[in-house]
């Protein structure tokens, strides 16, 4: 006799599987819409499609989509070589009546292949974790992210990406990192770890071992309708939408570049609105062959001028090379 247990818990199907997946695995209840940030914790049902079909593992309660897999929820789209959706029984709200099955749904005691009992076919499950593996691209109308692997926790609204060539792009800035990138959509916090770099859309740049970016709430103010003649030619779909960067905290091997100087130190904070960055701890300011060392510095990213600011009783030291072609009075 051949074993049958695994076949009852795991099976693969093609064709209309995407429709069945979207029907069975509904997501968390929809709430008020958030702007165009990468947030999969809102927006109603998640629809998953794939060229290579699906595996449904009832034992581990997960569905795996293969080959050009795509998940869509509201304005957020995730594409990857493989998508894995983990689901669980949905807790009914107090006083809520059970949802009626669709008119064309299969009987509750049938699997998608027409045999046996299927406890997950009642439409009462919800996706709580989504994994994307291989050539991951996550995007909305305004924000985009790339990486080799991504994990999204629906309950916490947290995205964690790993792999090579990781990048998070918003209308205001670009965040890259070597080790990992995290995005906390409810708190509007972005974290890059490992040679992390933030480059603003006007080419200001700050780099560190760890960068923590804090964004303002997105502007949901309705925009007046534009006629076709009033719309800018070749408009960029990333031109507006998500909240702008309010502050960046930098930790470890901080590196700040202005038009004329490079400033390094142990820790730093940068406020894009003012264009002011402050770096503290073993600070070095380099301008051509000129170098100054101290405990703290304030950098005006608009003017490109860095000023060493010392604590009372401390000293500034450095090397200044005369007649090096720098006409600044600060030599």
From TrEMBL:
One of its GO terms (cellular component) is outer membrane-bounded periplasmic space. Keywords: Signal. InterPro entries: LPS_export_LptA (IPR052037), OstA-like_N (IPR005653). It comes from the Bacteria. Coiled coil: none annotated. This is Organic solvent tolerance-like N-terminal domain-containing protein. GO terms for biological process: lipopolysaccharide transport. Residues 90-125, 216-242, 310-331 are annotated as: Disordered. Residues 1-35 form the signal peptide. Residues 93-106, 114-125 have a biased composition (Low complexity). GO terms for molecular function: glycolipid transfer activity. It holds the Pfam family LptD_N. Residues 55-166 form the Organic solvent tolerance-like N-terminal domain.
């Amino acid at each position: 006799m051949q074993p049958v247990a695994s076949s009852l818990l795991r099976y693969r199907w093609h064709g209309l599987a995407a429709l069945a997946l979207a029907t069975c695995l509904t997501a968390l209840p929809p709430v008020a819409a958030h702007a165009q940030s990468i947030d999969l914790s809102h927006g109603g049902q998640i629809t998953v499609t794939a060229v290579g079909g699906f595996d449904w593992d009832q034992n581990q309660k997960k569905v795996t989509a293969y080959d050009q897999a795509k998940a869509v929820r509201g304005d957020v789209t995730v594409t990857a070589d493989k998508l894995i959706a983990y689901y669980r029984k949905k807790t009914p709200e107090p006083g809520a009546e059970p949802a009626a099955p669709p008119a064309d749904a299969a009987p509750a005691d049938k699997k998608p292949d027409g045999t046996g009992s299927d406890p997950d076919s009642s439409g009462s499950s919800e996706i709580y974790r989504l994994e994307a593996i291989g050539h991951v691209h996550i995007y909305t109308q305004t924000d985009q992210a790339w990486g080799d692997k991504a994990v999204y926790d629906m309950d916490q609204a947290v995205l964690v990406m790993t792999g090579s060539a990781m990048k998070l792009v918003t209308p205001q800035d670009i965040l890259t990192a070597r080790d990992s990138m995290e995005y906390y959509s409810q708190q509007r916090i972005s974290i890059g770890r490992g040679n992390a770099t933030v480059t603003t859309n006007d080419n200001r740049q700050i780099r560190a071992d760890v960068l923590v970016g804090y964004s303002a709430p997105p502007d949901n103010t309705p925009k007046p309708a534009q006629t076709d003649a009033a719309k800018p030619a070749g408009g960029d779909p990333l031109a507006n939408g998500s909240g702008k960067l309010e502050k960046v905290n930098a930790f470890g091997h901080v590196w700040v570049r202005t038009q004329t100087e490079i400033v390094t130190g142990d820790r730093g904070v940068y406020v894009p609105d003012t264009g002011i960055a402050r770096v503290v701890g073993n600070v070095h300011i380099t301008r051509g062959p000129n170098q100054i060392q101290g405990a703290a510095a304030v950098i005006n990213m608009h003017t490109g001028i860095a000023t060493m600011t010392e604590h009372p009783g401390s000293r500034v030291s450095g090397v200044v090379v005369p007649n090096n072609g720098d006409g600044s009075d600060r030599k």
